[in-house]
Write a structure and sequence with these properties.
This protein has 712 residues and is mostly beta strands. 10% of the residues lie in helices and 34% in strands. It has nine helices and 47 strands. Strands 2, 3, 6, 15, 16, 19, 22, 25, 28, 30, 31, 33, 35 and 37 form a 14-stranded parallel beta sheet that branches. The protein has a six-stranded parallel beta sheet with strand order 4-7-17-20-23-26, with no helix packed on it. A six-stranded antiparallel beta sheet has the order 9-14-11-12-13-10.
Length: 712
């Protein structure tokens, strides 16, 4: 089957190259050192053998004390080191409270075994406390200090923020951009209203904790330049509610080549969600708290003398029969790679929360843990790449306001309808949740119906409340009719994969300047030999029908995410979004996206909306263009002509000349009227403007479902 290149990907490449905002978030700043460097291999660090400090493999003697002695020895030098386990089985988890946890408070510490088939850590004691893992990497935490406040708006994708004062900031220091504001919530969730059942959001406001690293400081302009882009829009009405706080982190910590198993394997009951604390939290393995540039992975390379199926298993970090395998809390630029979660079913496989840039790559869950791959609690810019789940296992967007999450190239996926998290901290996920080439697999033949936002919320507790997700190349047992596309920001190519296979890897390649090609060539492929209009679908892009050269032709993106998320710009006095358009409803029949242009006056006669598209085309080509409009109490002013209420296409030729073509609206009634025109291309063009015009009239004109196609 031929795989089409994604239109949204082309949009991203083009607008990224010219510095515009993009519909898709930029996920390329994920993973260790933001994937600009490979995970480290050749260390010159000292090695501290656990056996030398009293560890005894293949016995039932606990090695907690020996492990702590080795860690302290590495820390005493100031430079860290590798804590090395020999081949064999080691018992840990001697007690059942926080005093019996193994904690690492130092940077540059790696815990390593001889391979998951040779070194086993067996967790004995039960610690039924939420997030209390048996091994915890964390700095010596202290109350975070407020360093300043934002002094201006910030656009998503920007690397710079302006602050009220730079006196408390230092280069290469970690910071948190933070807010908890009901007023910001109201702006963020437009066009929806915050549901009163989301009590934390409704009463206390949206919480943002976005982690960053300072690259440079301009003392004159009070601008901080960051190593990574801001992943949320903070507009002129919201920046006053944001403050900047310090963030203490460890650096360069890892966990490698080990298998962890626990006594949950032998507990005489099968897992039951929320039955008690033992079931939920009894045996939790590994927590990374506030670690920058860390990793969990297999270290050993493939043995070329072993069959590939053996290498595929032994070259993993294995987490077997656990309440929870891995917790990443407030981690930045972190990679989890080649890990397997297996054995007896438990509560979680992996949790990511409050972090930035966590990459979970080539991992799998073979034991059907209750919660699948997880994001939650203000985590952002999280990528799950090629994660393998069993059919019927749900992803877990666990509420608490995560945003900017990518499930990428998931060929062995599960479902989206059993996300966790308390209703009071809903929605399950905020903006910028992207499913890219996700193979949806339920455990039975019945399709699941997905409506990602329901303002009435008649369900006791809906399990997939996502704020305008993006679905691209999603396949599996989810026919088109099972998706309420009007609760999505964009849907492209249902039941057919797209290129690139991995959005993250393509964005990373683009970041590294490995994607070649000029802007015009990239946009030219949008539609070269397209057929005429086959039915307007708003934001729904089908791979077989992407021939409209206009983006956001039904103004869905404008209404959903504001002007930064749409290519439409003001013409003259401009326009405003409307919910009185003619195409598909967002969530009920009273909200139809469109735009409205109010009556002009002699001081400002021109008004409307325009979109510019860069495209390289040579003659002979023929175009058809048009759209819909209706008037509200329209009255002609003196001197008005048909050209004052029309759709206009202005062609910009490569030789510097222009041509203009218009199609007019003449009825001036309160009913929707279609207007359509045609023209032929005479010379090679480099770009065109498409303009909705309403001028020299009193009243209001509504526009919707505009188009520009190449005609056969």
């Amino acid at each position: 089957m031929k795989v089409s290149e994604s239109q949204l990907w082309r949009n991203f490449v083009f607008h990224k190259r010219i510095g515009n905002s993009t519909i898709l978030p930029d996920f390329s700043y994920c993973g260790y050192k933001y994937s600009d460097e490979e995970l480290p291999r050749n260390y010159n660090w000292p090695v501290y053998l656990v056996d030398d400090y009293g560890g005894k493999p293949n016995t039932k003697d606990f090695c907690d004390e020996a492990l702590l002695k080795a860690i302290n020895a590495a820390a005493s030098t100031g430079g860290g080191g590798i804590i090395q386990f020999s081949a064999g089985s080691y018992y840990i988890g001697v007690g059942n409270n926080e005093r019996d946890v193994i904690k690492i408070h130092h940077s540059n510490v790696i815990i390593r075994g001889k391979g998951s088939n040779e070194t086993l850590l067996f967790i004995h004691g039960c610690k039924p406390v939420n997030s209390l893992c048996n091994i915890i990497f964390e700095p010596n935490l202290k109350p975070t200090k407020k360093l300043g406040t934002l002094a201006g708006p910030v656009n998503r994708g920007s690397f710079q923020i302006k602050v009220n004062s730079v006196l408390n900031f230092k280069v290469d220091h970690d910071i948190i951009i933070r807010t908890m504001s009901p007023k910001f919530s109201a702006n963020y969730f437009r066009p929806y209203e915050v549901n009163k059942r989301f009590t934390r959001l409704y009463k206390k406001g949206l919480i943002v904790n976005e982690n960053h690293l300072i690259k440079t400081i301009d003392h004159k302009t009070k601008i901080l330049t960051l190593y990574e882009p801001v992943m949320i829009d903070i507009d002129k009405d919201s920046f006053l509610y944001f403050e900047i706080r310090e963030h203490t982190t460890l650096r360069n910590c890892g966990f490698e080549d080990l298998k962890i198993m626990s006594n949950w394997k032998y507990y005489p009951e099968e897992f039951s969600h929320h039955k008690d604390a033992i079931h939920d939290y009894g045996w939790q393995a590994l927590k990374m708290q506030s670690v920058r540039n860390g990793w969990i992975r297999r270290y050993r390379k493939e043995n070329r003398y072993c069959p590939s199926f053996i290498n595929a298993h032994i070259l993993k970090c294995v987490f077997e029969s656990l309440s929870c395998g891995i917790i990443l809390d407030s981690c930045c630029a972190f990679t989890v790679e080649d890990c397997t979660f297996e054995g007896k079913r438990g509560h979680y496989s992996i949790i990511t929360q409050r972090g930035y840039g966590c990459l979970v790559k080539n991992c799998e869950d073979t034991c059907l843990n209750h919660h699948g791959p997880n994001v939650g609690y203000q985590g952002c810019n999280t990528v799950y790449l090629r994660f393998k789940s069993l059919p019927g296992q749900s992803i877990d967007c666990h509420s608490g306001y995560p945003y900017a999450t990518l499930f990428d190239d998931i060929q062995y996926g599960g479902v989206w309808n059993n996300n966790g998290g308390p209703l009071c901290s809903y929605p399950n996920h905020n903006k910028d949740l992207v499913f890219w080439n996700y193979n949806h697999r339920s455990s039975d033949s019945l399709p699941v119906y997905y409506s990602f936002w329901r303002e009435d919320l008649t369900d006791l507790r809906p399990r997939n409340v996502f704020f305008f997700p993006i679905l691209v190349g999603c396949t599996g047992n989810m026919p088109e009719k099972t998706i309420d596309i009007h609760t999505c920001l964009a849907v492209e190519s249902l039941n057919k994969r797209v290129e690139p296979s991995s959005l993250f890897e393509a964005q990373l390649a683009l970041k590294h300047k490995l994607c070649l090609g000029d802007s015009e060539a990239l946009v030219e492929g949008l539609s070269l030999e397209a057929s005429r209009l086959k039915g307007l679908k708003g934001i729904y892009f089908d791979a077989s029908n992407t021939d409209n050269l206009l983006l956001d032709p039904s103004f869905e993106l404008l209404l959903a995410g504001g002007r930064r998320n749409t290519p439409w710009r003001n013409y003259g006095a401009g326009f405003s979004p409307s919910t009185n358009g003619r195409s598909g409803a967002l969530n009920n029949s009273s909200k139809h996206p469109g735009i409205q242009v109010r009556g002009a006056n002699y001081q400002n006669p021109g008004a409307g909306a325009q979109q510019m598209v860069y495209i390289s085309l040579k003659p002979p080509k023929r175009f058809v263009f048009g759209g819909y409009s209706r008037g509200k109490r329209i009255e002609l002013l003196a001197g008005s002509t048909p050209e004052d209420y029309c759709l206009c296409v202005t062609l910009h030729y490569k030789d510097g000349t222009t041509s203009e073509f218009r199609t007019f609206f003449g009825s001036h009634s309160d009913k929707w009227e279609k207007s359509e025109g045609e023209f032929s291309l005479e010379k090679e063009i480099r770009k065109f403007d498409f303009i909705c015009i309403f001028q020299n009239y009193n009243g209001t004109a509504l526009f919707d479902d505009v188009y520009l196609f190449l005609s056969n």
